[in-house]
Each structure stands twice: as structure tokens, then as C-alpha cells.
Write a structure and sequence with these properties.
The complex is a heterodimer of chains A (150) and B (384).
Chain A: H1 16-24, E1 27-32, E2 37-39, E3 54-59, E4 62-71, E5 84-91, E6 96-101, E7 114-117, E8 137-140
Chain B: E1 6-13, H1 24-39, E2 48-50, H2 57-64, E3 72-74, H3 82-95, E4 101-108, H4 125-129, H5 135-150, H6 154-168, H7 182-187, E5 190-192, E6 195-196, E7 206-213, H8 215-221, E8 227-236, H9 250-261, E9 270-273, H10 278-287, H11 296-299, H12 319-322, H13 331-343, E10 357-365, E11 371-379
Parallel strand pairs in B: 2-3, 2-4, 9-10
Antiparallel strand pairs in B: 1-7, 1-8, 4-7, 5-6, 8-11, 10-11
The chains are: A mainly beta (150), B alpha/beta (384).
């Protein structure tokens, strides 16, 4: 399974903690202190109560596969990735977010399967700077641990 | 039944699906001329312009089309639902006394490589683009979730394409005129599983226009003009990360439109449903109330969607799946085919007998992330 590309996106002050968290292997979302609930996608004001008391929270990085598609005719930026898996993952204690899934044969993918955020591929990628960002890539919860590669 | 808000005096679908060597301006002018000729009106009669993504917006389009008597202008863009919403916007402006003759118009030339930008990139785009999201893949996520929750199969979705292709086989102007089988849909190449090529709409050049008029003008035109009884709309989105992919905006716009019209799904003789993908139609049928939620797969069996004698004939021109999908926006051409059915001008093999009430439903952008929904209910010209 080929690795997924990094993509140039607009990083805002509100979304930077999310992208930087991913590079460290952490799932960081904005969090409303008043509602005690997630704010997704990242914003500095809660869309439920409109308070600006919004901070960040690091989630466990575990979740459940909500839906998935094996994409054959994909985004041009992903042309070298071969067929890849676009998904929604419902994070434990957090929002349902768009993501990719790796490390599982396509015919073993199943809505409801348990997943965890993949560990960062290298120390280098933990320095995101302002360049292209990697997305949220999930692997099966029981997949081999850190450092074993994809 | 509720009262008629306004009437549709003219409708025009550009006859071509591939238009090389023409400017978009030329195509807009041809479409406007076609719709106004169909209505028996001229540019001097038009006092309202409703458009969306025309080059230069409504300002430049008013000048291009020679409209000098405008009293109402609307440039709202909600993607493929836009032109269904435009019917309601025109009718309400007419009811409010702002105008009497509204031209609703759209054109595009995506096959010539000059697709117009729709809405500017949304603030949510980075969270999609970083994962290689495509429009088709987003709809595939809806289809997969529907399969998971309700047991829907690819074979069920294929029934929708089979009906659309059957209808297109009677339409000499349709881009794809070949009938297809369920097996051919299943065996077509995968694009974003579970959606394959034949689950997807075509992309065409062209466009269309509608002329909506007051009861007073309709009476002067001396021909039966289908009536606009109701129109309702909404938007659904990620909802702060609490998304429900199998429920669409039709679950709100549908019941609201039926309530306005004083009708129920059982009263509808024909539906035009924007069919960007097969799953788009299945979810709309459920959410509009033609069958219980989750039973769309059962509903579409046994030729239910095939005219003239299926339980609910749909998209008798072939729809976006086989006939025409100009600029990747479906609402306009769907509305025009509903007008044909209500006028008794559909293909004779596909004309729904005694077609009194039609429903038009459009959705815009993506059911897999954020989408508009708009439902209009129309009646035949002799219905008062």
C-alpha cells in the first residue's frame, strides 16, 4: 500500500494545532469550554453557544469507521497513491472527521471497525512548518505499533 | 390544495450537449431567446432576472440579454438546487408585486474546459483536500453508509440508472441513448466504491431557462401554463462534526413543500429528481416521503421509476445520468422536464397519463459533506 501525499492547504491560526498535532501523531481538536464539547472543524468560536471560550483538547486518537470509499479515480494530488481509502471516522469523545485509512486490505474494511491514528512516519514530519500537511491517517486499532511502518 | 403562486409560461433546454467554438455569451443569448419565444414574450417584458454563476453575475447578464426593465434581481447560488429554488423565489417576488415576468437562466460549457467556478473554496476545504476527497468519493461515503444502515445493495442503486437510460433511449438529444442492464451498471469500472461509472451523471455543455409569470400575464398568453404551488429549501452540513450521512435536506424541504401545496406524496404523478448519482435519487425518494426511510431499495424495484406506468415515473428525459447535466448543475433541466410532463409534451411513449401534479427536487454540492436541498411542487395549467 503506497503512502499518502502531503497536500498544500490553507492553515489558519485556528487549525494549526490540529495539523501540528497530526504531525506528532496526536488528534487535537478545538473545544468549547462552555459547552464542554468539541468544535469541528477548528474555529475560535463555538457554533452551538457562540462563546469565544474555545481552547484545544487532545483526544485519544481512537475511533470508529463511520463510512469509507476505496477511491480509484481520485484527487490529482493523490494520483501516485493508487487506490486509497477516503473515510469518515467518529472519534471517541469527539467529532466525526474526514480521514484516510491504511494498513487494512480493502476487502476487510467494515463500517464500525475500531481504528487509531497512525503514528508519525518519521521524526522529520513532526516539524510541520508552513509546508504541505499530512492528513489524519488511521490504522486498525490492533495494528502493529509505533515504528513498524505502514 | 394550496393556491397557485405563479405560473411557468416558458421553458427551453439547449438542444446540444457538446458546444464547441461558441462563446458562453452566445449560448446564454440563445437560451434566453428560446425560453422567451416559448412563452410568447420578449426581453422588454422581463422585469425580473434570476441567475447564479453567469460571467459577471446578474449585472453583466442583464446587459448581455438586453433587459432594461428589471425590478427584481436574484443571484443566489446553491449549486444544483439553485434553479428549483429560483422557481419559488420568482413566485414569491411575483406574489409580493415586485415583478410580473421572471427569467430564470443558466448555461455552462464545461466540456470546452471553461467550467465556471461555483462558490469559492469553503473554509472546510483543507480538511477534505488533505485526504484526497473528491465529489464522487463523498457521495460514495453516503452510499456506503446507506448500505450499512439499511442493507441497500449496488443492484438496487443500479435500478435508478436502468430507468434513466431507458427514458434516454427515447430522447434523440440525450448524450447517452443506450439502454443498460443492472449487470452493466455493476460491471462498469469503479470510480469511488461503491459507486461505479454508470452510477454517475454525465457532464454536458448547454443549459436552460424558465419564464415565470403572474396569473394575470398567464391569462393574457392564452395557453395553459403549469402552476407553482410550493417551494421549500434548506442546507445540511457537517453540523459541528455530528454528521448523519443518510439523511438529506429533502427530509425538511419535502414535507414543507407538501404542506404548502396541501398535497401528499400519493398525489404526485411525476417526479424530476436531480440525479447527480444513483444514491442521490434513492435518498431523495426516501426523504421526500415516497417510501419510509431506508426502504428506497425496495421502492425502486420492478420498474417503479419507469414511465409511463411505473409507480412513480421519474426523469423521463433521461436525467443527468443519461441525458443532460449542463455545468454539473441539475436543477434547471429537471424542472424543464417536469414542465413538459405537465404540458403533455413529454415523449409520447413516456408521457404520464393525466399528469396533474409534479414534484421537482434538486440538491446542490455534496450530500457527503454539505448540500443544499430544494423542492418545488407544480400543477398542470388547467389546475386553478
Amino acid at each position: 500500500m503506497s503512502s499518502l501525499p502531503k497536500v498544500a492547504v490553507d492553515v489558519t491560526p485556528e487549525s494549526r494545532p490540529f495539523w501540528e498535532g497530526l504531525a506528532r501523531g496526536e488528534l487535537v481538536t478545538t473545544w468549547c469550554e462552555a459547552c464542554d464539547g468539541h468544535v469541528w472543524p477548528p474555529r475560535d468560536r463555538c457554533p452551538v453557544c457562540l462563546t469565544d471560550r474555545v481552547g484545544v483538547r487532545t483526544l485519544s486518537g481512537e475511533g470508529t469507521l463511520y463510512s469509507f470509499s476505496v477511491v480509484h479515480r481520485g484527487d490529482p494530488a493523490f494520483k501516485d497513491a493508487g487506490p486509497y481509502v477516503l473515510a469518515y471516522v467518529s472519534l471517541d469523545g469527539g467529532p466525526t472527521i474526514m480521514a484516510n485509512v491504511e494498513g487494512v486490505p480493502f476487502d476487510r474494511l467494515e463500517v464500525g471497525m475500531r481504528l487509531r491514528l497512525r503514528a508519525p512516519e518519521s521524526a522529520e514530519s513532526a516539524e510541520p512548518g508552513d509546508g504541505p500537511v499530512g492528513g489524519a491517517v488511521f490504522v486498525p486499532l490492533d495494528a502493529p505499533g509505533e515504528g513498524s511502518g505502514a | 390544495m394550496g393556491r397557485v403562486m405563479a405560473r411557468i409560461a416558458g421553458a427551453f433546454e439547449h438542444p446540444l450537449r457538446n458546444i464547441p467554438d461558441r462563446s458562453l455569451e452566445s449560448v446564454y443569448l440563445e437560451i434566453a431567446a428560446g425560453a422567451l419565444a416559448d412563452a410568447g414574450l420578449g426581453p422588454g417584458d422581463v422585469d425580473a432576472l434570476i441567475t447564479s454563476v453567469a460571467p459577471g453575475g446578474p449585472l453583466a447578464l442583464a446587459e448581455l440579454l438586453g433587459l432594461g426593465n428589471l425590478r427584481h434581481v436574484d443571484g443566489t447560488d446553491t449549486g444544483g438546487a439553485t434553479y428549483v429554488s429560483s422557481l419559488g423565489a420568482a413566485a414569491r417576488a411575483i406574489q409580493a408585486g415586485k415583478c410580473k415576468v421572471a427569467l430564470i437562466i443558466h448555461a455552462g460549457l464545461p466540456r470546452q474546459g471553461n467550467a465556471l467556478p461555483g462558490a469559492p473554496p469553503s473554509p472546510m476545504l483543507p480538511f477534505e483536500a488533505a485526504h484526497g476527497s473528491t465529489l464522487i468519493a463523498q457521495y460514495a461515503l453516503v452510499a456506503r453508509r446507506h448500505m450499512h444502515e439499511y442493507g441497500t445493495r449496488r443492484e438496487d442503486l443500479a435500478q435508478i440508472k436502468v430507468a434513466a437510460a431507458y427514458h434516454a433511449s427515447f430522447n434523440p438529444k440525450a448524450l447517452l441513448r443506450n439502454r443498460v442492464t443492472v449487470e452493466e451498471v455493476i460491471d462498469s469500472p469503479p470510480i469511488a466504491e461503491p459507486l461505479h461509472r454508470l452510477d454517475c451523471c454525465v457532464t454536458t455543455d448547454g443549459g436552460g431557462a424558465l419564464v415565470v409569470v403572474s396569473e394575470e400575464i398567464a391569462a393574457q398568453l392564452g395557453k395553459p401554463c403549469p402552476g407553482i404551488l410550493a417551494q421549500a429549501e434548506t442546507i445540511r452540513h457537517w453540523n459541528n462534526g455530528n454528521l448523519d450521512l443518510t439523511a438529506t435536506g429533502a427530509a425538511r424541504s419535502g414535507p414543507e413543500a407538501f404542506e404548502q401545496a396541501g398535497l401528499t406524496p400519493a398525489d404526485i404523478d411525476y417526479v424530476s429528481i436531480y440525479d447527480s448519482f444513483t444514491i442521490t435519487v434513492l435518498t431523495a425518494l426516501e426523504d421526500l416521503g415516497f417510501c419510509p426511510k431506508g426502504e428506497g431499495a425496495k421502492f425502486v424495484q420492478d420498474g417503479a421509476l419507469q414511465a409511463p406506468y411505473g409507480r412513480l415515473p421519474f426523469n423521463t428525459d433521461g436525467g443527468g445520468l443519461a441525458n443532460n447535466h449542463p455545468d454539473r448543475r441539475g436543477g434547471m433541466i429537471r424542472a424543464i422536464e417536469a414542465v413538459r410532463q405537465l404540458r403533455g409534451e413529454a415523449h409520447p411513449e413516456l408521457q404520464v397519463p393525466d399528469c396533474e401534479f409534479a414534484l421537482v427536487h434538486g440538491s446542490g454540492f455534496s450530500l457527503g459533506s454539505r448540500a443544499s436541498a430544494s423542492t418545488a411542487i407544480l400543477c398542470r395549467g388547467d389546475v386553478k
